[in-house]
Amino acid sequence: MFPVSDHSSDVIRGLWSQMKKAGVKVHLHTEVKGLKVQDGVLSGVELSDGRVMEADDVIVATGGLSYPTTGSTGDGYGFAAKCGHKVVDPKPSLVPLTVKEDYIKEMQGLSLRNIKLTVKKEKKVLYEDFGELMFTHFGITGPLVLSASAKLGKQLEKGPLSAFLDLKPALTLEQLDDRILREFQGNQNKQFKNVIHVLFPASLTPVMLKQGGIPAEKPIHEISKEERRRFGEKVKAFPFTIT
Length: 243
Ligand SMILES: Cc1cc2nc3c(=O)[nH]c(=O)nc-3n(C[C@H](O)[C@H](O)[C@H](O)COP(=O)(O)OP(=O)(O)OC[C@H]3O[C@@H](n4cnc5c(N)ncnc54)[C@H](O)[C@@H]3O)c2cc1C
Prior knowledge:
Elements: H1 8-21, E1 32-38, E2 41-47, E3 52-54, H2 75-82, E4 97-98, H3 102-105, E5 111-121, E6 124-135, E7 139-141, H4 143-158, E8 161-166, H5 173-184, H6 193-196, H7 205-211, H8 225-236, E9 238-242
Antiparallel strand pairs: 1-2, 2-3, 4-7, 5-6, 5-8, 6-7, 8-9
Helix pairs in contact: 5-8
The protein binds flavin-adenine dinucleotide.
């Protein structure tokens, strides 16, 4: 929900005024410890201070688990279970992802559009899609990553996953190699770092120079076809580890 004002306080004010109109009695700073259930019959709630509030019906609206400091600590799952509901283990979803490698964090603030993210467990592809991704001080975020997180929560509980970015998804490996070769032609005596930067945003270039397998200072005429191919492969499948 996005109010026109962009202020969440307006949502609270709206709800508050409706509750006032309906005569709702609000008990602030009152923690519910559990539901009062006896012989399968619900008769109210038990508060942390020992009091019991009798009620014919109880609506549990205790929120999720994603932001406990707001007071939403997932108590409702326990309440539901106590009433006999089957509770599916909650998993994180629509969240940014943490990454092991420092070179990812070095690019914090960089946003990439139209790239492909592939996440694998060994050889099995768990997620693959195109979109926008942003690097942060802890890993990656952005629409592509939030969508991916919804599919990866369960697998991430078992351990880290391998991820790959295709930084040039519009080009095949052959086309990319041709493109790199075009940059090399006419720049034979220049150093690799002074030629390859045209392919990447500024903060990605130093990382590609470190990770791409070709020394930054190497003159173009000394770079072998194999080195160039391996560099292209890194651009098409830039690796890192999601934790
Ligand atoms: C950083 C962030 C940004 C977001 N931005 C947006 C946005 O822009 N637009 C949007 O639509 N949504 C947004 N959301 C999602 C939105 O906040 C939630 O979907 C929404 O608040 C869920 O409402 P709820 O009433 O189910 O639970 P909550 O808002 O979590 O409310 C649950 C309440 O129950 C209370 N409670 C929990 N346990 C107990 C207990 N045992 N006893 C008594 N009280 C208890 C909690 O203190 C809390 O007040 C955002 C969420 C986060 C974390």
